[in-house]
Amino acid sequence: MGRRARDVYLGDIMQFRAPSSFMSRYYNWRVTRFINALIEGVVFLVILLGSVILLSVAIAGVSAFMGASFYVVVVMFLSFVSIVQMAWRVKEINERENGIMASISTSADKIGIARELVENLMIQGSIGDGRVWFALYRLAQRPNQVGWAIRDVLIEKGKEMREMFQYSNSDGDQAARDEGPGIGS
Q1: Terminal CA-CA length for the chain
Q2: What is the pTM of this model?
Q3: Could you say which DSSP state residue 128 is in?
C-alpha cells in the first residue's frame, strides 16, 4: 500500500499537480513531517502486534503465543528499526528541502541557482541523490517565487531531455544500424 501511495504521489508531483487521490494525499501527509512518519509507524506496529496476538491466540491458544513471544519481539524490533529508518529519511528530505529553499530564496538569481542544482543532479546521473530530486519536485509545488523558479527549470530540462531523446531515436540513426544477414543471403 505504501509503495502504491508513493508511486501515485510521485506521478502527481512530477506532473506538477497537487496530490489528487486519497493515497497521494496520505503519502504527502506522511512525508511532510518527521512526526507524521513516526505516527504512521506506531499505528503500523500496533496493528501488527494486535493481529499477531489475535491470530496466534485464536489459532493455537495462549500457551503457543507465549512460546513464540521471542519471535514476536524480534519481528516487532525489526519493524521498529524499519520505521525509524523511514522516518529518518523523511527528516533528511525535509532538511534538504529547507536547505534548498534557503539557498534559492536568499539569491537574487533564483532561476540560476535552481538551474545549477538541476544540472548538477543531471551530471551525476544514476548516482545522484534521489532525495534531492524529490525535494526539488516537492518545492516546485509551492506557489511562491522559489516554487515557480524550480518548476520553470524542471520543465525546461524536461523539454531538453525529450528533444535529445527524440533526436537520438530519429531516422538518421536507423541508417547506421546493422540489420544482419537477410533471408535470401
Answers
A1: 55
A2: 0.71
A3: S
